[in-house]
Amino acid sequence: MCSIGNELENGSEKYMPHIDKTQVDKQKCNKCKEATPCILLRGKDSYCKPCFLLNTNHKFKLLLGKSKLIRPRDKVLVTYEIGHPSTALLHLIRDGLNLNTPKKLTFDPVFVFVDDQYHLSLSERKDVISNILTEAAHHEFKIKFLSFVDWVLYNRIILSDNSDYIKADDGDKIVSLFTKKMNETNRKEFFNIEKKNALIAVAKQLECKFIFKPDISVDVASNLLINISLGKGSQISMDTGFCDDRDDSVKVLSPLRLFDMKELAFYNLLNKLNPVAIRQIKVDPYSSAQNLLKKFVTELQEGYPATVTTVVKTGDKLVSDIKVLGKCKFCKGPVFKNSELNSEESTHFSKLVSTYLPDRDMSKQDRFDDIKKTFESTVYMTPQHCYSCSKISEYLLDDGSD
Amino acid sequence: MKVNCEYGGGCDLLFGTKQETYELPSSSTAWTVGELLLWLAEKHLKTTQENFLQGDSVRPGILVMINEMDWELLDTTNYVLKENDTVIFFSTLHGG
């Protein structure tokens, strides 16, 4: 009798084997097989300093080169965010631009920081801007600042070269934006989309064809799960892929999507770069779907180093084949229509039937036809927002455009 | 025994310094990094312990390097400190 699988019945073998970190070869670098390693990645791959730095540079340029999207002298808007990924990105770009080999980067970068640090005091915000300017100057780059509150409230793009745009009441203005109570999940989603829209608008103003965002692998993995939880599964390939091409003239790229935080933090440390740091705020992981999913992915990654890679690689295979009706007015994502009623439409139909006052003079068939006609006249109109944005649409300012 | 500690990436905000050399109190047993963490948290941390520690190790998101080597290659908290060792604490949590 076949005995394959019997071993699953006895105890621990049914679980994933635990990798004993003390068994990892710590004597030799994984790549050159000679030098003593100085960093351990993914709990199993050890590298010496030269191989690690070379590998990191190579990985960055490989992803950009493979896509073949950026042509020489194209202007690229590089989004600066406080933390290790942006610091590493500054260094990687400067390093690539300074090369004299065929692998030299040939695009023209423009750095922009969207300032939304409203939890900091006025003096802390000014210090942060001053530190960012110092960091950019260290890499011989100039950086421009956009006040997020100006964009959200007035759709205004005023780019500054220093911290003069900072006003004491910026934080209050953001709070006063919502007259109705909005939950944290929707608020975060609203700000995320507004930030992306602001960057696209800035890119258009600066005539940039591309935007680099400093999302790393754990951001991509948690964004994928967040998209599913918010009913934006159809946008996964755009939101978490290498290239988000939902805008016709500006493509948003994620050149760091295959890096993890440890990799970039060590890259900075070994290059003696100290990123700008801000005071930490206590985040309640249960206050929003975004926080919860980020916590879930990060903690799972601690125990199982393949978690993020698995989620990212699975996400890369997901595409939507449903007919697109149009673009969402807010996030510019696709608006779909199924041939059958989806759950949202079914709920809408149910609500209509239970609240509709029928005309008793009509025959049963006429009453049915009447309510069906009413339903179809509402539901089969092309929706202005995708499902996810329809949940926050009541808070959106109408810009008057169709 | 003297140990050099460096703080970066935002850990400097937790300890109020970027670099410090400490004279560790003499002990009958050798000092491990795990014991150093608890000693630092008790004596020199300027904020609550949960911002630096989790259990008997550092909080996830804080990286540790001992003499320019990832501490994961050196048995993490069990590494036995030697005179003039340099321990770097580097946070990945202070972004925004």
UniProtKB/TrEMBL annotation, chain A:
Keyword Cytoplasm found: yes
Record-level Gene Ontology MF annotations: nucleotidyltransferase activity; sulfurtransferase activity; tRNA binding
GO terms of biological process kind: protein urmylation; tRNA wobble position uridine thiolation
Pfam families: CTU2 (PF10288)
Lineage, highest ranks first: Eukaryota, Metazoa, Ecdysozoa, Arthropoda, Hexapoda
Function comment: Plays a central role in 2-thiolation of mcm(5)S(2)U at tRNA wobble positions of tRNA(Lys), tRNA(Glu) and tRNA(Gln). May act by forming a heterodimer with NCS6/CTU1 that ligates sulfur from thiocarboxylated URM1 onto the uridine of tRNAs at wobble position.
Coiled coil: none
UniProt subcellular location: Cytoplasm
Gene3D superfamilies: HUPs
Record-level GO cellular component terms: cytosol
Gene name as annotated: LOC115878095
Protein name: Cytoplasmic tRNA 2-thiolation protein 2
Keyword terms: Cytoplasm, tRNA processing
The organism of origin for this protein: Sitophilus oryzae
Similarity comment: family membership: Belongs to the CTU2/NCS2 family.
UniProtKB/TrEMBL annotation, chain B:
tRNA processing among keywords: yes
GO cellular component term of the entry, any: cytosol
InterPro entries: Beta-grasp_dom_sf, Mopterin_synth/thiamin_S_b, Urm1
Localization per Swiss-Prot or TrEMBL: Cytoplasm
Post-translational modification: C-terminal thiocarboxylation occurs in 2 steps, it is first acyl-adenylated (-COAMP) via the hesA/moeB/thiF part of the MOCS3/UBA4 homolog, then thiocarboxylated (-COSH) via the rhodanese domain of the MOCS3/UBA4 homolog.
Keyword Glycoprotein among record annotations: no
Pathway linked to the protein: tRNA modification; 5-methoxycarbonylmethyl-2-thiouridine-tRNA biosynthesis
GO term, biological process aspect, one: tRNA thio-modification
Position(s), cross-link Glycyl lysine isopeptide (Gly-Lys) (interchain with K-? in acceptor proteins): G96
The entry's keywords: Cytoplasm, Isopeptide bond, tRNA processing, Ubl conjugation pathway
Source superkingdom: Eukaryota
PTM sites of type 1-thioglycine: G96
Cited function: Acts as a sulfur carrier required for 2-thiolation of mcm(5)S(2)U at tRNA wobble positions of cytosolic tRNA(Lys), tRNA(Glu) and tRNA(Gln). Serves as sulfur donor in tRNA 2-thiolation reaction by being thiocarboxylated (-COSH) at its C-terminus by the MOCS3/UBA4 homolog. The sulfur is then transferred to tRNA to form 2-thiolation of mcm(5)S(2)U. Also acts as a ubiquitin-like protein (UBL) that is covalently conjugated via an isopeptide bond to lysine residues of target proteins.
Sequence similarity: Belongs to the URM1 family.
PANTHER family (alphabetical): RURM1 PROTEIN
Protein's name according to its UniProt entry: Ubiquitin-related modifier 1 homolog
Lineage, uppermost ranks: Eukaryota, Metazoa, Ecdysozoa, Arthropoda, Hexapoda
Gene from which this protein is expressed: LOC115887644
